[in-house]
């Protein structure tokens, strides 16, 4: 997202800056719109990391966020004739005032080459070198005078690149070829929940890992803990001083890399090195979709990182020897638990590597952690149940309430004081006001103001007239079959058909807003976008419908757009097939901002219902057990199609070209998928979804009853602060104590006697 407003809020300077800028004849909101989003992630995973950095700084943890400084982030999405078109995100075009290059900390990263074994150990030689140049961005805590660092690495070719080798003649070509090395940090791979086993992607993963570990070890050696016996550093205290959290398997190569440093360079014995490594790393799993799990071909790793492959083989050998000693003759268990998958091309299962090489493994919501333990990694959990934990995701209330919804934030502060911003559990105090008529009206008024503001934005950007008193029904997230934007689309068509069948009948007006990016290579996701736009074209131009139903596809959904749409939302769509969305975090943002949720019992929705009371969410559809049972019986889409006339009508309209008259067969692939290979069972939940939506409309007619539910939701949102999440990581995994001490500002003398830095570093 953007940095300016977040920095002003966390420093307590927003009002002063607004006023100063106003006196210069400028408008702060206009200025804020000029800043580009830093789009350095794909969706939930990257935004979660940003929330975590905000919380770690706010909790006074000595923590660093490490990543890659992509020159081009997630693509900008344009919609042309209803189709997604990608444009490069040249976010650094005008420079980035928040970053500071740190050439003095530049580090070498090695690729390719070969391994030489001798009496003194293994040597990785004849490698190609790429330099990692760090850029530091400050991460301010909320009103506590703490500023942490996010360090992003950029790839640079060494000056002798391609010039030291027998490259006598072509000096010009050698300099041009520097681009090859520097391409490593050029562009973010745009897949969300999908693994693409490309060499450049593996290079990116090793690049960030190798640079970061060198940086961490340099810092450890410079500290009082990295004491040296004669020449050699003693690493015994390393896990007490350093904790490294692996955000999914993307940085899994850190495990063999740290082993390589300890064994080959620092000359530690294997067992000692492995003990330290395991105590240092912890792994967070973020998805159970098989197509998202990283499985790198052995021959690619052998070419790019030959020493790391040897180390992974050694880790695997010792791991399997251990399993075999516990379960003699159980060859199938050995096959299931191996880090190496045989059959076809040999691959390395990076999740297995992370589990074996970490002292803690966690999922990101209760239901997901349960699935991780009992299904995806059941063999590992049976072996070491104490290793598996849950850490339910959270969001930072600074960006996702104070920054994006100042009206609501202020209204809450009037009732319960301002402390809730640092301790979101205090929102439970709002339960006292659930029957307070004035408060109910004020909450509804803030929502209405947000809706009017967003409606004006939509009318400016999309040239459609929006009815601000209609229900704003919002479905924004990455476009993916498991997230079931198609089911929402079928509901839109069903509402459309009902209006046309009986135009006189009372219909609760809706503005349905769908937004999100599809991975450029994901054909079905792109067809879904086209279908939504085709349906919108018909619905929005039908005079029989008028202002009762409007459909908008939000172009280029990103953090800065989320900050506009979420506060204006009435109904939040969280409708993934049960057991597929690990947690979700958008769901929490909507809850905190006064929207009601329609959703399945999936991810964090389960805990949201637990906190607010299931009767205060619109929960529908199959539970995980029902999905499992349906899989056992076999899912037959045509049975639902034959039994449900409204579903049949909607599907027939898509199939016949009602929404694509110029190309009646345009959506054949979509219809064919829904009937013959829909892994996510859209038809199975359609009926329950439509019935649940009728309940939503019914409640929306009673503004007071609706707003009471809204207040109960806000009052129950406290658990979903990333501050709570980070406190749990700190205590259960990193073994550091959060501190709510406000350190003195730089202009006050610091009491030298009081060292207020918490012992231990979370890296």
UniProtKB/TrEMBL annotation:
Record SUPFAM superfamilies: UDP-Glycosyltransferase/glycogen phosphorylase
Record's protein name: Alpha-1,4 glucan phosphorylase
Lineage: Eukaryota, Metazoa, Chordata, Craniata, Vertebrata
Gene3D superfamilies recorded: Glycogen Phosphorylase B
Superkingdom classification of source: Eukaryota
InterPro entries documented for this protein: Glycg_phsphrylas, Glyco_trans_35, Pyridoxal_P_attach_site
UniProt organism field: Atrichornis clamosus
Gene coding for it: Pygl
GO molecular function per UniProt: glycogen phosphorylase activity; pyridoxal phosphate binding
Protein family per UniProt: Belongs to the glycogen phosphorylase family.
